[in-house]
Design a protein that fits this description.
- The protein is α+β, with helices and mostly antiparallel strands.
- The chain has two domains: about 1-100; about 110-285, Rod shape-determining protein MreC, domain 2 (Thrombin, subunit H, Beta Barrel).
- The protein is built from two helices and 14 strands; from the N terminus they run ααββββββββββββββ.
- The chain has helices at about 1-20, 25-100, and strands at about 105-115, 125, 140, 145-155, 160-165, 170-175, 185, 195-200, 210-215, 225-235, 240-250, 260-265, 280, 285.
- The strands form three sheets. The chain has a six-stranded antiparallel β-barrel.
- α1 crosses α2 (about 25-100).
- The longest helix is centred in the first third of the chain and has 78 residues, at about 25-100.
- It is elongated.
Amino acid sequence: MSLLLIVIALVALMALAVEGRVRFPVLNRVVIAVISPVNSCIQTFTGAASSLEKKLEAITTMEAENEQLKKENAELRRANIAMAEFYAENQRLTKLLQYKEHVPEQKLLPAKVVGRNMGDLQDVVIIDRGSADGLDKEMAVVTGDGIVGLVEEVYPAAAKVMLITSSRCKIGARILRADSRAVGVICGRSMENMPLEMEHLPREADVRKGDVVITSGFSGRHPAGLVIGTVRETSPEAAGLLLNADVDPAVDSSKVEEVFVVTGYSNPAAATGKLNSNTEGGQAQ
């Protein structure tokens, strides 16, 4: 009990000494010696806690700013994609309009590709025009680069287009060169990255690498002069009586999005190839 009273008395004296109410030099020194380390620890802890709080606030701010930057970057990416799409579409439409200006003798109906055959052959596309728009079978479908294919089936508001690369597609063709004009039939191969084949050429036909091939128009179902492609090479037919030519198509059908359907035309006999501004003198540019 007496020890407890002594401790209480010492604590009271220390408190008075701290407050300055009593002056005991020795006691003051003892109190300072005891209190100073504790006070220093408290200040250090308080400073560390304050620093930690500031760091946490800074981290929180940085995370918020980082999220905002991510959102802005995503918006910029979307804007860039939209701009690239707009530019590409503008380029395609400009080319189509330029084509239309070069063929006043053709009645052209604009259409969009809305579906594709995703099977092994991949030789058909669907466009958003049909019988209600005046479409009929065998009408030619074109872009500014050349012929894409022929209308195969017609529905009220859509049509199936057989691509020129299809093995089922056969189109009368001729060489666009004044000193040749060799005539044959273009057939597809229904194989990706494979050239078209120009068949039934006379063995002595003057067909050269680089010659431009156009539609002959002899069938009367589509106009003459539509660009088909460019001769890659020639080879004798197996029996040796005829000549075949591999022809690289002018149009990459896998990338076609907008097209024209040739719904009517007056077919000039000359068929000089003016229908495509990218050809000149019968040679690919």
